[in-house]
Amino acid sequence: MLDTPHARDIPGAPHHDGAPHGRDRLAGRRGRALVTAQDAALRDHLVHGVPVLPGVFLLELVLRLVRDAGVDPATAELRRCRFLAPVTEPGAAGHRVEVLLGEPDGGGALPVTIRGRAESTESAEGAWRTHCTAELHLGRPRPQERVDPGALADRAGPGTDADELYALVRRIDIEHRDFMKAHGTVYAGPGFALAELSLADSARAHLPHFLAHPAALDFATLVPLWLLAPGRREAADHAFLPISIDSFRAAEGIGAHGWVHVPGPVSGGLDSETMRSDIRVCDGEGNVVAALTGFRAKRVRTAGDLTGDGTAGHGGTPQAPEPGEHGGHGEPGGHGRSGAAPVGEVVTEVVAAALGIPPGDLDPDRGFYDHGLTSVSLLSLADTLEQRLGRELYPTLLFEHPTARALAAHLRDQEPVPQEPLPSAPAPSVSRVRERSAAPAQDGPPGPGPDAVAITGLAGRFPGAPDTGSLWRLLAEGRDALSDVPPNRWDAARHYDPAPGTPGRTYTTRGAFLDGVDRFDAPFFRFTDRQAELADPHERLFLETAWQVLEDAGHTPAGLAAQTDGEVGVFAGVMWNDYQLYGADAAPGGGPAAGSWFSAVPNRVSHLCDFSGPSLAVDAACSSSLAALHLAAESIRRGECRAALAGGVNLSLHPYKFVRLAQLRLLSADGRCRPFAAGADGYVPGEGVGAVLLRPLGDALASGDRVHAVLRGSSLRHSGRTSGFAVPHPEAQERVVAEALDRSGVPAGTVGYLEAHGSATALGDRMEFDALRAVFGERTDRREFCALGSVKHALGHLEAAAGVAGLVKILLCMRHGRLVPSLGDGAAELSVDFADSPFRPARLLEPWPEQTDPATDAPVPRRAGLSTFGAGGANVHMVLEQYREPEPEPESRAAAPSGPAGPEVVQLSARTPAALRERARRLRDAVRQDAPPRLTDVVHTLRTGREAMRHRLALVVRDADELAEALETVAEGGTPRVPVRFGEAGPAADAPGTGPAAPASSPDALAEAWTKGAPVSWPAPAPDVRR
Fold this sequence. Notes:
13-stranded antiparallel sheet; 34 strands; disordered N terminus; fatty acid synthase activity
């Protein structure tokens, strides 16, 4: 078979070399293989009737070469793998394949070229054809990763014989014969695919020859198809072959039996031009032995595309230029500094150069294939654009945006064009971040699994706290925000009677209320005054908060939509619709008929932001917002959306609400909300709105998002029948908590805080505590290690927004590394006995200690549980984990710049001068908080995550202290000591890419140009920048 030397020819075991020594062993090395028509991997794998060597097998040849050099393949990672031409029918003499390893680049990566030629031809260079290129990176062996195939199979339900998967690909003209056809079972679970794999007898006979068996690898690349909905599978009409892989690792040999895990979601599909997925190949015990991260496949329409005998109707085969050709950067006729031109101009130049035509002759609306470009050309164009734009682009970009105009529009919505090309040392790649985040749970302290969902933005308004920073101060100081009904709501005395049971009256006037629920910036959100008046305040407040969440996450609506193809969901918890009662009161007299529709709360956000994912209102009573969060995370895992805004809103707008709750005897008679306290007799209604942005963890890290926390697992269930409609069910509560813990993979003994529902009723609190004690008591012997509290003592019961209020509290505690007093002071008597339980009452402002894994004694991130139990029986529990940035590798740490790189331009804009001053005040508060953001992160977020509006301010500062001082002066109407520019841009300036870009110059000149509305080519952000 293939004659590449095998590891058995090397004396001794491979060395676990350090990266520099391993590179010395490999630099300039060359390996050869001869492929003949009798090689089963080629003979038994046909595409459109043509024998084709599986593309992923070319990577096996590289790893063999690594092993033959005495370097442990577990230290090797292949990145930016590009499949340019398949190895097909070799002819009578065979097909010679060579693997060439070049000299290390500035970042230590070795360039890899895999080329081939017919063995009968002369050895002239012109006869070679490049099949694949990649980068070989060396580092330490990764810790053993692991998945639990049995648990995943149980979650997925009944499986299907693998023959059905092969039947599916036969319909798109890919045929597998004996050697290349594995046996097993495939499963489609919620947000993942799984397959059990057994090699055919003929394939097993050759196991010793392979590090990664071609039949196993090829089967693994088919499994993502099973994650597609059946209807999308049936839409298939063409074959697909690999075109790129962001990262490939194979730590050890793949045996005769194993598993394939695809965590999902799959982007694209058989009805698209390309398809992307992450793939893990495991041994029979679930240990990951090979990982393909960012695996992309491309549609192949005809056999001519494979053999080179035709161009599939694409005309000729012009090639993309190498950097520097046709007036590219660094050449006469180019721009010198590659970032000096707007994105649209750069795209036009690069595509025109590939075609060999003047830029003015390029039709921007004609498809790339119609211009005569090939798949190879488009991959090369992506690399050229990557250099010109100074940022990482995924290789199938030009397949998904198939015209120059569409491509420019997509790129324009992303980061701006930098002043300089990419440095020789590559920035951390998207593929690496995605692989790290998507890794399955491993032995030792379990990390976020492949289904992990990141929280990347949060915002909220609560009683006594107009923003999350104010909420932290209120909680940390142990204050509450309870008060009487504000006089601008209704005449509380008219509806009050202290005697419970009085018809039409409430026995309390206490609540927790928001300020300014009647205020709304209608023009900003594109409402007319009349529309704003008739819209329910629930709708208005959630819309405002959703906008603030996107700002906190560092994204504009258009930018996030561009990253996700618009697949952003909106899930809003809401349960009161009493605003329409005012419309009912006013309608007989000809007044406005105000309305309340739950669906308008999320739908309004989707409409304004042009998001096309699921848009749902969720009414699960007190569990509404946490149920919305659970559904949003599951929607992401199922691939229904690629990001989601989720949260809840709750207001007390009409006295009817208090009267109704008083009739049900749910309200506290003394006007205090005391969860788990002796003598507690009911809750105090609270108002509030909160929301978060959810994204797959890998996508969040790849986008440079700041990750507040990771949602490790959650469960949503109903209590079923109990002794009364509103009576809790302890066993049902136990089940939902246990299921969330199981799904999270988090040991109960590592959870350091639990935000309880805490309904402030004797029966409800006792049942909740008993359920928690039962679940945790079964899973850990530790006692009084987990603090327990409830935000209701400070804010009252926010009902539909109760869950998101608890979530925001947890995220703030994680950010500050401290727990806040939640159950009164030490003198208050509790209604439950914490002694000899896993829990202790949270009564102090205290450090939140990190826990250790009981199995390994290794430290783990801060972890928390969160519960809500709805009055009608809807129960939700969620497990959260603080995200830890991985420690940079020594080489990356050494290459990182130290100290300030120079002055930065900080941009602010608003629609009015007053709003601009308010933005300056808010930014001042943000940079003065206990854990202020880095200046580079602030600059990047304001530059890419804010819409540029008419009234503009730019400050040139060197550090965060200078920025805070300057913002203070601006907010008070003064002139700061640092360089400052004010300006007013015309309406056209809001459109990106219009007009000539300001020439790259000093920060002062850039600030001046931007405030006047001119397009500016900003410097590229640092590799480690976060939004």
